[in-house]
DeoR/GlpR family DNA-binding transcription regulator (Streptomyces mordarskii), 241 residues
Amino acid sequence: MILRALRSGGPAAVTDLSEQLGVSAATVRRDLLKLEEEGLLTRVHGGAVVEEGDQPFAEVAGVRVAEKDALAVAAADMIEDGQSVLLDIGTTAYRLARQLHGRRLTVITSNLVVFEELADDTAVELVLLGGVLRREYRSLVGFLTEDNLRQLHADWLFLGTSGVRPSGQIMDTTVIEVPVKRAMIAASDQVVLLADAGKFPGTGMTKVCGPEDLDAVVTNAPSDSATCSVFEQAGVKVVRV
Protein backbone atom coordinates (compact mmCIF):
# COMPACT_ATOMS: atom_id res chain seq x y z
CA MET A 1 0.00 0.00 0.00
CA ILE A 2 2.90 2.34 0.75
CA LEU A 3 4.48 1.64 -2.65
CA ARG A 4 1.14 2.17 -4.41
CA ALA A 5 0.66 5.49 -2.62
CA LEU A 6 4.14 6.71 -3.56
CA ARG A 7 3.80 5.66 -7.20
CA SER A 8 0.45 7.38 -7.61
CA GLY A 9 1.14 10.49 -5.55
CA GLY A 10 4.89 10.97 -5.72
CA PRO A 11 7.17 11.68 -2.73
CA ALA A 12 5.30 11.72 0.58
CA ALA A 13 6.00 12.48 4.22
CA VAL A 14 5.65 9.89 6.95
CA THR A 15 2.76 11.84 8.49
CA ASP A 16 0.91 11.96 5.16
CA LEU A 17 1.35 8.21 4.61
CA SER A 18 0.23 7.55 8.17
CA GLU A 19 -3.00 9.50 7.67
CA GLN A 20 -3.62 8.12 4.18
CA LEU A 21 -3.18 4.48 5.21
CA GLY A 22 -4.69 4.70 8.67
CA VAL A 23 -1.66 3.38 10.55
CA SER A 24 0.77 4.85 13.05
CA ALA A 25 3.82 6.85 12.01
CA ALA A 26 5.98 4.24 13.73
CA THR A 27 4.50 1.52 11.52
CA VAL A 28 5.18 3.60 8.40
CA ARG A 29 8.78 4.26 9.44
CA ARG A 30 9.39 0.56 10.12
CA ASP A 31 7.95 -0.44 6.76
CA LEU A 32 9.89 2.29 4.93
CA LEU A 33 13.10 0.94 6.41
CA LYS A 34 12.29 -2.59 5.25
CA LEU A 35 11.27 -1.42 1.77
CA GLU A 36 14.49 0.59 1.43
CA GLU A 37 16.56 -2.44 2.47
CA GLU A 38 14.83 -4.36 -0.33
CA GLY A 39 15.63 -1.60 -2.84
CA LEU A 40 12.00 -0.75 -3.51
CA LEU A 41 12.13 2.91 -2.46
CA THR A 42 14.45 5.64 -1.23
CA ARG A 43 13.94 7.29 2.14
CA VAL A 44 14.32 11.07 2.18
CA HIS A 45 14.09 13.52 5.05
CA GLY A 46 10.71 13.01 6.66
CA GLY A 47 9.39 10.57 4.09
CA ALA A 48 10.15 8.48 1.01
CA VAL A 49 10.12 8.38 -2.79
CA VAL A 50 9.86 5.63 -5.40
CA GLU A 51 12.20 6.00 -8.37
CA GLU A 52 10.29 4.70 -11.36
CA GLY A 53 12.04 3.03 -14.27
CA ASP A 54 15.71 2.61 -15.03
CA GLN A 55 18.05 5.28 -16.33
CA PRO A 56 18.87 5.59 -20.04
CA PHE A 57 22.20 4.12 -21.11
CA ALA A 58 23.94 7.47 -21.50
CA GLU A 59 23.12 8.45 -17.90
CA VAL A 60 24.81 5.41 -16.35
CA ALA A 61 27.64 4.80 -18.83
CA GLY A 62 30.01 6.97 -16.80
CA VAL A 63 28.96 5.70 -13.36
CA ARG A 64 31.34 3.40 -11.40
CA VAL A 65 33.42 2.75 -14.53
CA ALA A 66 36.50 1.51 -12.64
CA GLU A 67 34.40 -0.99 -10.72
CA LYS A 68 32.69 -2.22 -13.89
CA ASP A 69 36.05 -2.59 -15.64
CA ALA A 70 37.35 -4.72 -12.75
CA LEU A 71 34.32 -7.00 -13.10
CA ALA A 72 34.82 -7.12 -16.86
CA VAL A 73 38.46 -8.22 -16.58
CA ALA A 74 37.53 -11.03 -14.19
CA ALA A 75 34.66 -12.10 -16.45
CA ALA A 76 36.83 -12.12 -19.58
CA ASP A 77 39.29 -14.44 -17.82
CA MET A 78 36.52 -17.01 -17.45
CA ILE A 79 36.03 -17.34 -21.21
CA GLU A 80 38.13 -19.66 -23.38
CA ASP A 81 38.88 -18.97 -27.04
CA GLY A 82 36.46 -20.68 -29.38
CA GLN A 83 33.50 -20.34 -27.04
CA SER A 84 30.19 -18.55 -27.58
CA VAL A 85 29.21 -15.71 -25.30
CA LEU A 86 25.86 -13.99 -24.75
CA LEU A 87 26.12 -10.41 -23.53
CA ASP A 88 23.14 -8.79 -21.87
CA ILE A 89 22.09 -5.17 -22.24
CA GLY A 90 23.59 -2.49 -20.03
CA THR A 91 26.86 -0.76 -19.36
CA THR A 92 28.69 -3.56 -17.54
CA ALA A 93 28.24 -5.90 -20.52
CA TYR A 94 29.62 -3.11 -22.70
CA ARG A 95 32.71 -2.87 -20.48
CA LEU A 96 33.14 -6.64 -20.86
CA ALA A 97 32.89 -6.35 -24.64
CA ARG A 98 35.85 -3.97 -24.54
CA GLN A 99 37.90 -6.78 -22.96
CA LEU A 100 37.12 -9.24 -25.77
CA HIS A 101 38.89 -7.53 -28.67
CA GLY A 102 41.10 -9.87 -30.68
CA ARG A 103 39.64 -12.99 -29.07
CA ARG A 104 38.46 -15.90 -31.25
CA LEU A 105 34.92 -15.90 -29.91
CA THR A 106 31.30 -15.82 -30.99
CA VAL A 107 29.51 -12.96 -29.27
CA ILE A 108 25.71 -12.85 -29.31
CA THR A 109 23.91 -9.75 -28.07
CA SER A 110 20.90 -7.46 -28.20
CA ASN A 111 23.06 -4.66 -26.81
CA LEU A 112 23.71 -2.15 -29.59
CA VAL A 113 26.69 -0.60 -27.80
CA VAL A 114 28.32 -4.04 -27.60
CA PHE A 115 27.58 -4.50 -31.31
CA GLU A 116 29.16 -1.15 -32.16
CA GLU A 117 32.21 -1.91 -30.01
CA LEU A 118 32.95 -5.25 -31.72
CA ALA A 119 31.58 -4.66 -35.22
CA ASP A 120 34.99 -3.98 -36.79
CA ASP A 121 36.86 -6.73 -34.92
CA THR A 122 37.38 -9.50 -37.47
CA ALA A 123 38.53 -11.97 -34.79
CA VAL A 124 35.05 -11.95 -33.24
CA GLU A 125 32.08 -13.61 -34.91
CA LEU A 126 29.31 -11.23 -33.97
CA VAL A 127 25.61 -12.13 -33.85
CA LEU A 128 23.09 -9.30 -33.38
CA LEU A 129 19.68 -10.42 -32.16
CA GLY A 130 16.65 -8.89 -33.83
CA GLY A 131 13.87 -7.04 -32.06
CA VAL A 132 12.21 -3.72 -31.32
CA LEU A 133 14.61 -0.85 -30.73
CA ARG A 134 14.70 0.90 -27.34
CA ARG A 135 16.66 3.95 -28.44
CA GLU A 136 17.52 5.48 -25.06
CA TYR A 137 18.60 2.12 -23.67
CA ARG A 138 20.54 1.05 -26.79
CA SER A 139 18.92 -2.38 -26.83
CA LEU A 140 16.60 -4.63 -28.83
CA VAL A 141 13.65 -6.33 -27.11
CA GLY A 142 10.41 -8.15 -27.79
CA PHE A 143 9.19 -11.46 -29.16
CA LEU A 144 11.59 -11.35 -32.12
CA THR A 145 14.54 -11.20 -29.72
CA GLU A 146 13.12 -14.05 -27.69
CA ASP A 147 12.48 -16.15 -30.83
CA ASN A 148 16.07 -15.58 -31.98
CA LEU A 149 17.36 -16.79 -28.62
CA ARG A 150 15.31 -20.00 -28.82
CA GLN A 151 17.28 -20.88 -31.96
CA LEU A 152 20.71 -20.25 -30.41
CA HIS A 153 23.00 -21.75 -27.80
CA ALA A 154 25.79 -20.07 -25.84
CA ASP A 155 28.50 -21.42 -23.59
CA TRP A 156 28.28 -18.31 -21.40
CA LEU A 157 25.76 -15.64 -20.50
CA PHE A 158 26.98 -12.55 -18.71
CA LEU A 159 23.88 -11.08 -17.16
CA GLY A 160 23.34 -7.57 -15.87
CA THR A 161 20.87 -6.45 -13.22
CA SER A 162 19.22 -3.41 -11.69
CA GLY A 163 19.33 -4.88 -8.21
CA VAL A 164 20.02 -7.96 -6.12
CA ARG A 165 17.69 -8.62 -3.20
CA PRO A 166 19.01 -9.93 0.13
CA SER A 167 17.28 -13.22 -0.73
CA GLY A 168 19.42 -13.53 -3.87
CA GLN A 169 16.61 -12.65 -6.27
CA ILE A 170 17.82 -10.88 -9.42
CA MET A 171 15.66 -7.87 -10.28
CA ASP A 172 15.06 -5.49 -13.16
CA THR A 173 13.31 -2.13 -13.33
CA THR A 174 11.81 -2.64 -16.78
CA VAL A 175 9.21 -5.32 -17.43
CA ILE A 176 9.89 -5.45 -21.18
CA GLU A 177 13.51 -6.53 -20.64
CA VAL A 178 12.73 -9.46 -18.33
CA PRO A 179 11.48 -12.00 -20.94
CA VAL A 180 14.63 -11.39 -23.00
CA LYS A 181 16.86 -11.96 -19.97
CA ARG A 182 14.99 -15.17 -19.15
CA ALA A 183 15.35 -16.36 -22.76
CA MET A 184 19.09 -15.65 -22.53
CA ILE A 185 19.31 -17.76 -19.38
CA ALA A 186 17.49 -20.64 -21.10
CA ALA A 187 19.87 -20.47 -24.07
CA SER A 188 23.08 -20.64 -22.03
CA ASP A 189 25.12 -23.35 -20.31
CA GLN A 190 26.79 -21.09 -17.76
CA VAL A 191 25.04 -18.00 -16.35
CA VAL A 192 27.25 -15.37 -14.71
CA LEU A 193 25.81 -12.33 -12.98
CA LEU A 194 27.87 -9.15 -13.19
CA ALA A 195 26.90 -6.94 -10.25
CA ASP A 196 28.98 -4.22 -8.64
CA ALA A 197 28.41 -3.27 -5.01
CA GLY A 198 25.93 -0.57 -6.04
CA LYS A 199 23.50 -3.29 -7.15
CA PHE A 200 23.14 -4.61 -3.58
CA PRO A 201 20.21 -4.02 -3.24
CA GLY A 202 19.99 -1.58 -6.17
CA THR A 203 16.56 -1.10 -7.71
CA GLY A 204 13.94 -3.09 -9.57
CA MET A 205 10.51 -4.52 -8.92
CA THR A 206 10.42 -7.33 -11.48
CA LYS A 207 12.10 -10.67 -10.77
CA VAL A 208 14.37 -12.01 -13.50
CA CYS A 209 15.55 -15.18 -11.76
CA GLY A 210 16.68 -16.64 -8.47
CA PRO A 211 20.10 -17.81 -7.27
CA GLU A 212 19.27 -21.33 -8.44
CA ASP A 213 19.49 -20.07 -12.05
CA LEU A 214 23.04 -18.75 -11.65
CA ASP A 215 26.38 -20.52 -11.88
CA ALA A 216 28.56 -17.62 -10.76
CA VAL A 217 28.46 -14.01 -9.58
CA VAL A 218 31.28 -11.56 -10.28
CA THR A 219 31.14 -8.69 -7.81
CA ASN A 220 33.07 -6.22 -5.70
CA ALA A 221 30.50 -6.40 -2.90
CA PRO A 222 32.04 -6.77 0.58
CA SER A 223 33.17 -10.29 1.43
CA ASP A 224 30.85 -10.33 4.44
CA SER A 225 27.80 -9.43 2.34
CA ALA A 226 24.81 -11.47 3.52
CA THR A 227 23.59 -11.72 -0.07
CA CYS A 228 26.87 -13.23 -1.22
CA SER A 229 26.47 -15.81 1.53
CA VAL A 230 23.03 -16.65 0.14
CA PHE A 231 24.60 -17.24 -3.27
CA GLU A 232 27.31 -19.48 -1.85
CA GLN A 233 24.77 -21.50 0.12
CA ALA A 234 22.85 -22.01 -3.14
CA GLY A 235 25.99 -23.42 -4.80
CA VAL A 236 26.77 -20.27 -6.81
CA LYS A 237 30.44 -19.45 -7.21
CA VAL A 238 31.16 -15.91 -5.98
CA VAL A 239 34.13 -14.28 -7.73
CA ARG A 240 35.24 -11.21 -5.81
CA VAL A 241 37.32 -8.52 -7.47
